[in-house]
Amino acid sequence: MGVVIGITGRNCAGKDTVAAILERHGFERYSLSDGLRAELRKRGEEITRPTLIALGNELRTAEGPATLAIRVQDMIQTERCALVSVRNPMEVERLREIPGFEFWAVDAPVEVRFARETSRGRESLPASLEEFVELEARENTSDPNAQQLDATYNLADWEIQNDGTLEELEARVMGRIEALEAVASGDQA
Fold first, then answer.
1. For a disulfide at 9, which of 4, 13, 19, 126, Cβ 3.0-4.6 Å?
2. How many C-alpha atoms does 132 have within 13 Å on its Cβ side?
3. Alpha carbons 50 and 126: distance in angstroms, whole number
4. How confident is the model at residue 125 (pLDDT cuts 50, 70, 90)?
5. Which residues, in sequence order, are CB contacts of 78 under 8 Å at separation 6+?
6. Burial class of 19 by CB neighbour count within 10 A (0 to 12, 13 to 18, 19+)
7. C-alpha–C-alpha distance, residues 187 and 6, integer Å
């Protein structure tokens, strides 16, 4: 049995940073948004946060709330992988069918996340912390065919705070992986 980590978190919490740490330690990395990006390219549409969200919601409505998880499961080529951008409770439910699956929620204080967002230098940045919080609230719904960030976050098996240095984050991540791999190999302490 392998170790498969699903990752969720609020905007700029460090989901991709956690996945990059796992990649450096031999994990394959997949994003539930990869299929969305490919579809937007096929449609000739710009790949932006709003278009990704809209397409994800469209596909969940048309194919069911777990469709992005089903699509990423079809892409997995290894028993040791990180699955980023899990944003709907039904996606978590579907991914729990994978042997060795554990679901992580990454978080950081809102001020830290806003500072990360503004440092990225992307287009259409929120003008203020208040706008950042408002945009995030709009992405968090109770619609079963949309993103449900809070409900998804609350399903986490493990929560990791990303409010320190990269080295501290990596130590937390790898400590958890070592424990999971010990359990998977039957080498529990």
1. 13
2. 18
3. 13
4. confident
5. 2, 28
6. buried
7. 23
Contact 32, 83 (CB under 8 A): yes
End-to-end CA distance of the chain: 18
How far is Cα 179 from Cα 54, in angstroms, rounded to an integer? Answer: 38
Tokens of 103: 């679901």
Strands 28-31 and 3-9: unpaired
Question: Given the structure tokens 């469709």, which residue do they identify?
Answer: 67
Compute the average pLDDT of residues 59-81.
Answer: 89
CB atoms within 10 A of CB 29: 16
Instruction: Output the 3-class SS for 13-44.
Output: CCHHHHHHHHHHCCCEEEECCHHHHHHHHHHC
Is residue 188 over pLDDT 80? no
**How many helices and strands, by DSSP H and E, does the chain display?**
9, 5
Tokens 């998880």 -> residue = 69
The answer to whether the pTM exceeds 0.70 is yes
User: Is residue 20 left, alpha or beta, with left meaning phi > 0 and alpha meaning psi from -120 to 50?
Assistant: alpha
List, in sequence order, every beta strand (DSSP E) within 89-157. 101-107
